[in-house]
Amino acid sequence: MAAVTIRNLSEEAYRALKVRAAQHNRSAEAEMRAILEAAVRPEGRLRLGTALSEMSRKIGLTNADVEALEQSRDAHSAEPTRFE
Description:
There is one protein chain. Helices cover 57% and strands 0% of the residues. The radius of gyration is 25 Å and the shape is elongated. By secondary structure, the chain is mostly helical. The protein has helices spanning 11-23, 28-40, 48-59, 63-72.
């Protein structure tokens, strides 16, 4: 896990951070982590797994369908194309 040091933070900002942390019942360090996470990982981001799951539900894809596809796949690798 990475560690970050923040230098030259004003006393006003630090006090405000501590107040905000207290309002959320967490430490100043936990509050900083939450702020940074929210800034770089916004709520509205596309989550690929969730999007694929929703799509499969809409078209009615079931686990049995996926298993059937996996069984029908050829166990051998494809022959490479030759350009001779």
